[in-house]
């Protein structure tokens, strides 16, 4: 997707995001997978900011599951068990629109220039979506996304 | 004109999120149902007819996954 190499930490996050999407049976890499990858990268500024808000990987996974169940319930569907897709070995999840958008917002947060974007900038990009799975999962849990972004941006300066 | 700010929950957001969740659920159900049918001896044509799609579409989407899952697909050209 990128013409120039990404900073190592960001490239690692994108690889981890793809691995998480694959493990979850997702055919596309979405913003929620990037969020989990960012939270997984312990001791990074992004993971610390998430951790300060109580968002460790397990909690994020629980919130994402709660969001899906609540959204299905809106359509009158109750899950007895999650039917998880099992992808074949070597399948590479494609870029999903929510992940692409998060990367673009992260680039803007970094002041432009893709090669300047860090994992923390990407987190700002992931959290910056107005609607969709990530903002919805956080809102349903009563987490103030704007506050999270403000704290993260302040910590980056 | 700038669009109005919208909430990620409630109102229209709930309906749109339900569509996303249903698509994901349908994908998972399709994977499971196709694998079950093929393990039960169904042909590609039968599975395609049941899903209302072409045989080529089912083949393209599921072949590699089923092979990796160890489903015996020999003599299943119909």
From TrEMBL, chain A:
InterPro entries per UniProt: Clp_N_dom_sf, Clp_R_N
Domain annotation Clp R: ranges: 1-70
SUPFAM superfamilies in the record: Double Clp-N motif (SSF81923)
UniProt name for this protein: Clp R domain-containing protein
Keywords: Repeat
Source superkingdom: Bacteria
UniProt source species: Pengzhenrongella sicca
From TrEMBL, chain B:
Source organism of this protein record: Pengzhenrongella sicca
Entry protein name: Helix-turn-helix domain-containing protein
């Amino acid at each position: 997707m990128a013409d120039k190499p990404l900073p190592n930490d960001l490239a690692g996050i994108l690889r981890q995001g793809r691995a998480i999407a694959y493990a979850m049976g997702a055919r596309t890499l979405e913003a929620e997978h990037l969020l989990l990858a960012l939270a997984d990268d312990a001791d990074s500024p992004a993971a610390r900011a998430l951790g300060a808000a109580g968002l460790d990987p397990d909690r994020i996974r629980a919130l994402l599951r709660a969001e899906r169940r609540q959204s299905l319930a809106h359509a009158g569907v109750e899950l007895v068990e999650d039917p998880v897709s099992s992808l074949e070995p070597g399948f590479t999840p494609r870029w999903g629109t929510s992940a692409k958008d998060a990367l673009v917002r992260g680039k803007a947060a970094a002041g432009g220039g893709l090669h300047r974007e860090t994992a923390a900038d990407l987190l700002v990009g992931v959290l910056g979506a107005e609607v969709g799975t990530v903002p919805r999962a956080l809102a349903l849990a009563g987490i103030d996304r704007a506050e999270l972004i403000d704290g993260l941006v302040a910590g980056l300066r | 004109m700038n669009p109005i700010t919208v909430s990620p929950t409630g109102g229209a957001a709930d309906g749109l999120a339900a569509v996303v969740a249903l698509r994901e659920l349908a994908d998972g159900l399709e994977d499971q149902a196709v694998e079950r049918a093929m393990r039960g001896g169904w042909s590609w044509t039968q599975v395609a007819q049941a899903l209302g799609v072409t045989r080529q579409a089912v083949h393209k989407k599921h072949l590699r996954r089923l092979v990796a899952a160890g489903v015996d697909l020999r003599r299943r050209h119909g």
